[in-house]
Amino acid sequence: MGRAPCCEKLGLKKGPWTPEEDQILINYINTNGHNNWRALPKQAGLLRCGKSCRLRWINYLRPDIKRGNFTNEEEETILKLHEMLGNRWSAIAARLPGRTDNEIKNVWHTHLKKRLPPQENNNIKSTKKPRPKQKKKLEITKKSNKTSSKQKQEKEEEEPIKIGDRTMMSPNTQCSSSSSINNTTNNNNNNDGVSMNNSSGESINNDDDGNKDDNLALDEEFWSEVLSSDNSYDEDARKFEDIEFGDLDLFHFPLLSSSASSVACDGMDSWYDFCTKSLELPQL
DNA sequence: AACAGCTTCAACCGCTGTCTT
DNA sequence: GAAGACAGCGGTTGAAGCTGT
Questions:
Q1: Does residue A232 sit in the same domain as residue A115?
Q2: Distance in Å, residue A205 CA to nucleotide C10 C1'
Q3: Inter-residue contact A127 to A134 (CB < 8 Å)
Q4: DSSP 3-state assignment of A256?
Q5: Mind listing the pLDDT tens digit for each residue in A181-194?
Q6: From the CA of A138, how many Å to the C1' of C5?
Q7: Closest amino acid to nucleotide B15 (CA–C1')
Q8: A147 touches strand B (CB under 7 A)
Q9: Nearest residue to A125 (alpha-carbon basis) of A211, A215, A203
Q10: A76 and A124 inside one domain
Q11: For the segment A21-52, what is each residue's pLDDT rounded down to a tens digit?
């Protein structure tokens, strides 16, 4: 698998986005969609790499982004989901309409992590294998024109960005990030992969380091196998019923079995319920 | 007012997974 | 099956803003 040579070309801009760049990106995606992030900046006339455009759109410009403080309910949800899923921010974000994985990650590290007892904090490990220390980039010309995030937020609240004939605001009225992307663009945006795939194809994996000992030993392969990206739950549900979890066959538990069968109908909601119930299992 | 330390969060980096050729 | 291309993810960074002294 080759690596994407991102931002290798000289002359590509880095750092904070200007309002002009935002507007260009918004306008372009509004009219053309984002079928190909790599080609997008060139076609849109942006001196950015596709990755940067994608990130900017997903984390900031997407119209269904909910800005502002997290509610208590949202924070509780994050805590619960993090307990179940570990640092799978995108999976957690899929349960929180209008919130991005980046935002949730930030909130976790700045607020929620502190709420945990120290012992639990120590148990939190990466869901991935440890990576070698990142090399420091030579020179980054950052923040040359960065506006404060709060200022930006206030500005946006005052002056919602217009996308074509639509105004980027009121995320609460939008659907969750898992389904709203198609609302954001024209009909030629059919294969919008971003959030559709993000949610429907998201593998909900138990934290293979931190939670495994305390919770059910759910095999990662099981999750990725069941939660295939095409939402073919009927097919998957059949597979699901044949799966054993190592020594523990969850489907011998009536509670979980019923949850599991409902998965075929309800998608992520059922997975959430399923996970929630799974955590209750030791008390049964 | 000035400074230092802390907090926040947008953006970057590098890796992995998936799809295509 | 191998390799390339791309999207997506999670970890990390660092400047701006905030707070305390």
A1: no
A2: 14
A3: no
A4: helix
A5: 333 333 333 333 33
A6: 26
A7: A131
A8: no
A9: A211
A10: yes
A11: 999 999 999 888 888 888 898 889 888 988 89
CA-wise closest residue to A112 among A129, A128, A91, A89 = A89
Cβ proximity of A30 and A185 under 8 Å: yes
- Is residue A138 assigned to a domain? no
- For the full predicted model, state whether its pTM sits above 0.70: no
- The integer distance in angstroms from the CA atom of A208 to the C1' atom of C16 is 37
Whether residues A109 and A233 share a domain: the answer is: no
Phi, psi of A38 (to 5 degrees): -65, -40
Residues A83 and A61 in one domain: no
Question: Looking at the structure, do residues A156 and A106 belong to the same domain, yes or no?
Answer: no
Name every residue whose Cβ is closer than 8 Å to that of residue A281 and which is 6 or more positions away in sequence: A216, A253, A255, A256
Q: Which nucleotides of B are covered by protein (CB under 7 A)?
A: 7-19
Dump pLDDT digits (tens) for A141-176.
333 333 333 333 333 333 444 433 334 433 333 333
The answer to whether residues A57 and A150 belong to one domain is yes
Residue recorded with tokens 């990142």: A134
Q: Could you give phi then psi for residue A167, rounded to 5 degrees?
A: -110, 135
Least Cα distance to A278 among A218, A234, A237, A220 occurs for A218
Structurally, chain A folds into a number of domains equal to: 3
**Domain, as residue range, for A119:** 72-128
User: For residue A102, what is the domain's CATH number?
Assistant: 1.10.10.60
Name residues whose C-beta falls within 8 Å of residue A211's C-beta, 6 or more positions apart in sequence: A83, A84, A86, A123
